[in-house]
Amino acid sequence: MRFRIAMVLILAAMLVLPAGAGCQQPWQHLQSPTAAQVAARWKTPPPEYGPEPYYGLNGSVSIAQVERDLDTLQNLGFRAVTVQAGFNMPFAYLSSEYFAFFRKFVEEAKQRNMRVWIVDDAGYPSGFAGGKFTSEKPEQRMQALEVEEKIPVAGGTTLHKELPETVVSAAAVDSNGAAMPLPLHGNTLDWTAPQGNWTVLLVDHEFRTSPTRSDTNPKRVKDTEQSLEDYMDPAATRQYLAFTHQQYKHYVGDEFGKTIMGFRGDEPDYSIAGLPWTPKFFARFREIKGYDVQPYAALFAETPSRRGQDGSTGGVAIHLTPEQLRIKGDYYDVFSQMFAAGFFEPQGEWCAANHLEYQVHLNHEEMEMELTHSEGSFFRDMHWVEVPGIDAIWHQIWKDTISDFPRLASSAAHVDGKPRAFTESFAAYRPAPDVEMARYIVNEQFVRGVNLVEMMYFPATSAGPRSAPSYMGQPGFSDLTAYVRRMSYLMTMGRPDATVALYLPSMSMWMGDGKSDEQLVSSERLLSEHQIDFDIVDEDALVSGLKALPGALETRSGNRYRTVILPAPLVLPAAAETRLKAFARSGGKVVFLGGTPEWIAGRTIRDARAATAAEFSWATVVRGQLPPTPTPPAEPPPAPPVPQTVSAEVLATLQSAVIAPVVTMDAPDTALRVMKRRWKDADVYLFFNEGARTSQHTVTLMTTGRVEIGHNQIGRNVESWDAQTGSVTPLDATRSGGHAVIQLDLEPYATKVIVVR
Questions:
Q1: pLDDT digits 0-9 by tens, 333-387
Q2: CB 670 within 8 A of CB 530
Q3: Structural domain of residue 740, as residue ranges?
Q4: CA-to-CA distance for 723 and 268, rounded, in angstroms?
Q5: pTM for this one?
Q6: I need a surface site. Which of 93, 176, 569, 707 has the fewest CB within 10 A?
Q7: Backbone φ, ψ for residue 121 (5° rounding)
Q8: Mapping DSSP to helix (H, G, I), strand (E, B) and coil, where does residue 388 land?
Q9: What is the dihedral sign for C-alpha 597, 601, 606, 611?
């Protein structure tokens, strides 16, 4: 009887476990260790916590070369590797000979207790399967809507034209830029032009791909000869998985979730002229929005300008009406949903079902106005990705730039309850970093919540570090990898503890609203410069992704936002407005920076109702605009540009709205950055001085629980953890209202981890 009861209890417990929970590895989910448990492992963290080099299997690569390179990489401090099929290999990509070689590669990594991430294509962007979509599945290639023909029409003239079957939309634009959609009757266009001079635009659908940099392309260039798949078609992505992931499973699947950690994607996007399109788009649009967008597609079929009010169509300027702009927003809303469901969701689910993780970054994530028109929505895409990513590959982070690099990857991880966010760093940096600058670049990202570092680029044909990036061969590089390995482990343990959410107004950007983008970037900089730890959230999070609690909105990671900041959104979903109002009335704080929304959208943005400022009496409204971040010059300046200061009134209003600050300072310091995490029995603070001057402050750590610090306990509960040496040192502290007060001294460009038990 006891046995039967025990079995029933065991089965019941199994039933309430989430799918796949029983086979998850520790590194695949949030952990809540004690400080003692972290201290016992952090000097030599498990290899799953990186860092890893991006390793290319180039040229006449052999197992002997692989053995040498893996040994070199181990000596440099790497315990994991991201591997990509390279150019001029002695076997064809995705052939049985390639997979036989790859099997040996995995065995060599396993012998060294190293971990492997597999780059999912022979180059980038992900999704061309080494050219197989062009050669074997041309019907599943990427498509776009483009202006196929421009026809001048004088006022009073009737245009009658038989159209090719590929033409899907038409519009007329007068000499002042006013535009109207034109009805199509089957394959016939009949239209009499009103007074004035007009240009009729005919839009057709074409197979059109973003350029691909394929290592199976004999020209060794980035061009359009090897097409990407149709990202919005789940069937095309299933074919992509069959071409690539399923083959890896056949040959090395026994190492999935063990030696092999997952697949790594790169920059999937629509870098095309025209509109992203798929044959099922118009039908899916009608399902989601309830009206037909096909007649309006011709108005949006060229790549929009940054300000978005005008579209350039080969010399024809279009000035969209407010309603047409809202219809354009609906188009990109549906596009973003279809891109996420067609490409990212199938891959994330496949990896999860096979005990792997999917990590990917998009293209130009820090340029949101461009991203919203080429990828739709960062957060919708990353919702399906186990390890959201971002890249820092040009000159976005450097000592001569203003620090406004976005917290996108870590925020996506925090909102969706994922333990890690990764960065691809150092590729194509101009100038190339040395070890000191590489440390600065990763610290800028650590303090923004990134905790898995991929370092570019180590080719298999190298003679060790001499042919790798210069910084890898410099003295001190192994010290850097040891530092990164420990910091990555520390910043992965526990959960985030940001209490401020900053709204990313993608819906406004779909309409081409540059003001909301400028205010977002300025808000990010303002919060960072005043030691306010925050996450970025999108419409979906505000509508349903965050759990509503009294006076708080909770992420799947468990951190609770007590303050929500919205930077000048042009439009806001009605469901988000309702939730924010309830949030504010239950004790939370809502702040609109730069003005309240002009539109409140329901099912469609087209039919959004006009909003008035009086509707938002439940929120704090800051009317003044935040100063924009100075535009970086073409050539790197000798010193960082000086950011414009914000008014004392705006700053005071913002700081008073932060109910649960991370720290309080004795004096302002715009060079000091901070983020916070929570372990089971400790609060963890990461400080980074990004400035060229020593930072010295008395800092109150706003700990979650009460800190017991008495005459005989000073320093016992507050510790400094040195990620370079692996040492833990008691830190002198006093008490103020149950919180620890410390003296923080940071050399230029230095970090410090403070643990309060």
A1: 999 999 999 999 999 999 999 999 999 999 988 889 999 999 999 999 999 999 9
A2: yes
A3: 662-757
A4: 34
A5: 0.92
A6: 176
A7: -150, 175
A8: strand
A9: negative
